[in-house]
Automatic annotation (TrEMBL):
It comes from Vibrio coralliirubri. PROSITE patterns: CSD_2. InterPro entries: Cold_shock_CspA, CSD, CSP_DNA-bd, NA-bd_OB-fold. The keyword Plastid does not apply. GO terms for molecular function: nucleic acid binding. One of its GO terms (cellular component) is cytosol. This is CSD domain-containing protein.
Length: 84
């Protein structure tokens, strides 16, 4: 197993029915593949575009993306909050 990188980032796309999506770390221009099985959650899984996440990543040799091995959802995206 390769060394893990711990970072924060945001969801760029997630399709619940297909069980995967992608995120971008705050620093760097890599795509991160997120599989539903690595998401730690309380209750219902519902990752939204722009949502902040904590990720533990591993590089995938010969692929243009990295894999998330652990994802913790943080705050919902600002634009998803209801108006006060």
């Amino acid at each position: 197993m390769s060394d893990l990188i711990c970072t924060r980032g945001y969801i760029t796309w997630f399709h619940l029915e297909n069980g995967f999506g992608f995120a971008k770390p705050d620093h760097g221009d890599i795509d991160v593949l997120i599989h539903i099985s690595v998401i730690e959650f309380d209750g219902e899984i519902n990752l939204e575009e722009g949502q902040r996440v904590y990720m533990e990543l591993e590089e995938v040799k010969d692929k243009p993306h990295w894999n998330a091995v652990k994802v913790l959802p943080l705050a919902k995206p600002f634009f998803a909050l209801e108006s006060l």
